Amino acid sequence: MPNADIVVVGSVNADLVVTVAQLPRAGETVSGGTFARSGGGKGANQAVAAARLGASVAMVGAVGADELGDEAVRELAAEGVDVGAVARLDGVATGVAAIVVDARGENQIAVASGANGALEGPAVEAALERLLAAAPGGVVLLSHEVPETAVDAGLRAARAAGWTAVLNPAPARTLPGELAGVVLTPNADEARALAGEDDVEAAARALAGRTGAPVLVTLGAEGALLVEHDACERVPAPAVAVVDTTGAGDTVNGALAAELAAGRPLRDAVRFALAAAALSTRAAGARAGMPRRDEVLAAL
């Protein structure tokens, strides 16, 4: 495989998906659903999204030495993702996400981290030392379904190598101390929680003040809020018939990384990423609807 221009540091899961008419309330059982199993994990989903759009992608993560881990790695490799830095760990299970999706495409997700929780900083540092040295520049894409030490190591390595760092701070938790130059991509709830602000624009501006870099706050069907320098802009997303929103945020991040790695201007990259995410919601499952580049261009 050619040298990667995107390196994803993040989670690799097996998704167990039940589709029902309505999401259950606390203590309620909703029957009559359908079941499917597929590859998932924010990191792996982001890697697949970028690869389908034509980027050269390497994955840094961990799975268990079990059947689900075997399948997860095979699925990534089949998408063209370099899996040489996906560790196989004995004595720990592959991560699993239990997902319930309703008739409107909304979802509830519970995650058992498994091997993702064992991905630590030294392993990430060693993998990135090899991967980032092999190319003159690109994007390191990170998210929060792996330990803080893994994220910190990824950010340090990107900074040292002169690569662009994009951090999808999901799920929300305390941000790393050193965020200078890091592009943040929270959703609205995450932005509010991370910034301690009720207003989403105020939250985005506060986060941009910490990083000195652009902040992209995703707003679901309403598109996104982009803060760059002193400007704050609402960027719309194309309207589509939604089947399942699972993985839409991961598609935004993978597509954004792919466009930035290709040298495209930030606003153009954001518009492209939002279109890709909208298209991804047309099929059930986190990856089933992730589009190819020509489909996204046709939707713009």
Could you give a short description of this structure?
Helix content is 35%, strand content 24%.
Strand percentage lies at 15-25%
Largest sheet: 6 strands, parallel
Q: Percent range for helical residues?
A: 25-40%
Q: Strands of the biggest beta sheet: in what spatial order?
A: 5-4-1-8-9-10
- The CATH class assignment is Alpha Beta
- CATH topology, by name, is UDP-N-acetylmuramoyl-L-alanine:D-glutamate ligase
Average predicted local confidence, pLDDT: 95
Topology record:
Layout: E1 6-9, E2 13-19, E3 34-40, H1 42-52, E4 57-64, H2 67-78, E5 82-89, E6 95-101, E7 107-112, H3 121-133, E8 139-143, H4 148-161, E9 164-168, E10 183-184, H5 188-195, H6 200-211, E11 215-218, E12 224-228, E13 231-235, H7 248-261, H8 266-280, H9 293-299
Parallel strand pairs: 1-4, 1-8, 2-6, 4-5, 8-9, 9-10
Antiparallel strand pairs: 2-3, 6-7, 11-12, 12-13
Helix pairs in contact: 1-7, 3-4, 5-6, 7-8, 8-9
Report on the structure:
The chain has one domain (6-168, 237-299): 3-Layer(aba) Sandwich (UDP-N-acetylmuramoyl-L-alanine:D-glutamate ligase). The two termini are 30 Å apart. The model has no long low-confidence stretch (mean pLDDT 95). It has helices spanning 42-52, 67-78, 121-133, 148-161, 188-195, 200-211, 248-261, 266-280, 293-299, and strands at residues 6-9, 13-19, 34-40, 57-64, 82-89, 95-101, 107-112, 139-143, 164-168, 183-184, 215-218, 224-228, 231-235. By secondary structure, the protein is an alpha/beta fold. It is globular, with a radius of gyration of 18 Å. It has 9 helices and 13 strands.
